[in-house]
Amino acid sequence: MKPSLPIPVAVLGATGTVGQRFIALLDKHPWFKVVALVSSEKNVGKHYAEAVHWLLPSPIPDWAREMGLKSAEPKAIDGAVIAFSALPSDVARELEPKLAERGIWVCSNASAFRREPDVPILLPEVNAEHIAVLDEQKRRRGWQGGIVTNSNCTSSGLTVALKALDEAFGLQKVFVVSMQAVSGAGYPGVASLDILGNVVPYIGGEEAKVEWEPRKMLGKVEDGGIRLADFVVSAHANRVSVVDGHLVVASLAMRNPPKNAEEAIAAMENYMPPVIARHLPSTPSPVILVRREPDRPQPRLDATTGDGMTTVVGRVRPDPIWDLKFVVVSHNTIRGAAGGAIYNAELLVSQML
Ligand code: NAP
Question: Does the global pTM surpass 0.85?
């Protein structure tokens, strides 16, 4: 039996960069009502407005201001059906399984369980059918609830574009260079003296994630797990002096390359999400927007397209070494984090609960 609306949810890591996005996006969400907020011990017991260093242009919603912060333990969020996790990975690794065991559905931004074969990395507009592995997760682990994850914030928009092109032309090799916003590092994140007027050509652990997670997301459900897609990815990850919105430049080799850029643009513009993910409250509209101007997309101008859920592509053109190259921008704390996790939860509610 489906839970009645609104569905009670908790936000873990509610004071952080992603946590704040959750609070803003869950304000007036048609299905979800926040009943618990979790922070680190130093803030437990404080009111949310007192503890948070609020970074968003919209005000803190009234319902959140006076909510008391709770500690990261399962009983703190009793009563929640879904837990949105924006915890550091080491904390998530400890807490998330305990919640799943108690029947809570955890929609996590943390990387802790992404590599587990029975834990999907969901992008509903790409691989909604991957929720099928949750049956194996329940069976193997004996959980009443479960864990679903979203990818690292660089892979999400990139993988939406790759999905449309893979379906049409078959991917073989993907070479990407990321230019990642500072909000991707959390708060306070990268020191201003390191990043202002600068590019830092290293983000710990990121390249390995970008080289692996798109292959899982574009893989096939098989024997209760996910068989990785058989293309290869090479990634260079860079931190740049941008607040929000990751920009990735990509070159692709394909099995049946498009005859020209227009054919590739048409594949992306006509891309349709799986039927079960098409009409949820957070379904991006459009899923992919292809800009024709020579100097777009740009993070500052394009990351908030479609309320931050749309993948924005541009500069689609032939690649003289391989077949095709293009630029993609997506909002790291919305499509790449809080907005993506909420879309995952909507998919779970519509299919599983
Ligand atoms: P952040 O700004 O550093 O926030 C971390 C949050 O976790 C804060 O609310 C913090 O609470 C809480 N926390 C820290 N230690 C804790 C503990 N021991 N117990 C309970 N809560 C604890 O980080 P973020 O950027 O929001 O990232 C959160 C997670 O999402 C990370 O796993 C990150 O890798 C992932 N992610 C981030 C992005 C992005 O664009 N930023 C995108 C995708 C995924 P206090 O304020 O009380 O310290």
Answer: yes
